[in-house]
Amino acid sequence: MKKDKFIKAYLNATPLPIDNIHEARRLERQRSSIAARIPFSGTIDNITADTGHNELSQVRVYTPQGPGPFPVILYMHGGGFSLGSPDTADNLCRTLATASEAVLVSVDYQLAPEYKFPSALEECYRLALWIDAQDVALNVRNDQLVIAGDSAGGNLAAALCLLARKRKEFVPAYQVLICPLLDQRTPLTDKLGRMRDSLINIENMQTFSGYYLNNPDEAENPLASPLLAESLINLPPATIVTAELDPLHSEALTYATRLRKSGIPVSHHYYPGQVHDFILFIKALEEARGAAEAVAKDLVAFFTPEEK
């Protein structure tokens, strides 16, 4: 599909009824379940991860062809912390696992408002520890752990890297932030400008924030708004993907700048004329596939030693 046609369809899509979260989830699941899938030559397994203390998490594991051990990507889908599942980013995850030659673990984390901040973050943290302990079973290298996500999942990925730095129980090797939500404190009215989005609008973002946060003051917590972290030193190198028509673009750009000023290598891929989370539409949009392959290229370059 041509970009102009795709953007027109995206902006004119029937909006999900976010104020009725159960109906919104049903419709989102319906859309995701009927979406065409790209081929994947490896194996895909839906499993239950026992992360200890009677804590169970549902994950989808994409394993590429080859002997391994592979780098491993812990992936968090978007959806305002309240919508979505591994189906939401399935084609993206297939592409990343194949193109980066990495095992990808996509998390079906518990959603708000039933599970509020920091429930999803803590669940993903436990899964990072689980991957570290299951490296042999998963056929992965736990010193090559990538933390990745899109939109709200990008928020979780950035926050997870901050939390890992604080607790020092594992060390992420790399982070991938795709159209991330990084600042829940600043009102969306200050971010929109001329941009219009069927999902990211003032009403929806206020609703998502109310679902996720226990109270508005939690927006000041860097684990809810990573852009507010006092320091970004000693975080892993990053790939950040942004789109011109995404209301969240400016905060991601500011985060990239702050990372660089803190001595963190950043690869920034900017897509003019594109909308929030366009990268998910790999089957329909050539530019989305190109963006996913650019992310994978960064990962391959990072994990493949240069020949001397």
Fold blueprint:
Layout: H1 3-11, H2 21-34, E1 43-50, E2 56-63, E3 70-76, H3 90-100, E4 103-108, H4 119-133, H5 135-138, E5 140-150, H6 152-167, E6 174-178, H7 189-192, H8 202-212, E7 238-243, H9 249-261, E8 266-271, H10 286-303
Parallel strand pairs: 3-4, 3-5, 5-6, 6-7, 7-8
Antiparallel strand pairs: 1-2, 2-4
Helix pairs in contact: 3-10, 4-6
3D structure, described in words:
- The protein has about 300 residues and is α/β, with parallel strands linked by helices.
- It has a single domain, classed as Rossmann fold (3-Layer(aba) Sandwich).
- The protein has 10 helices and 8 strands.
- Strands 1-2-4-3-5-6-7-8 form an 8-stranded mixed beta sheet, sandwiched between helices.
- Strand 1 and strand 2 form a beta hairpin.
- Helix 3 packs across helix 10 and helix 4 crosses helix 6.
- It is globular, with a radius of gyration of 18 Å.
- It starts with a helix and ends in a 5-residue tail after the last helix.
Low-confidence stretches: none
CATH superfamily: Alpha/Beta hydrolase fold, catalytic domain
Query: Can you give the mean pLDDT?
Result: 93
Strands ordered across the widest β-sheet? 1-2-4-3-5-6-7-8
| N-to-C span | 42 Å
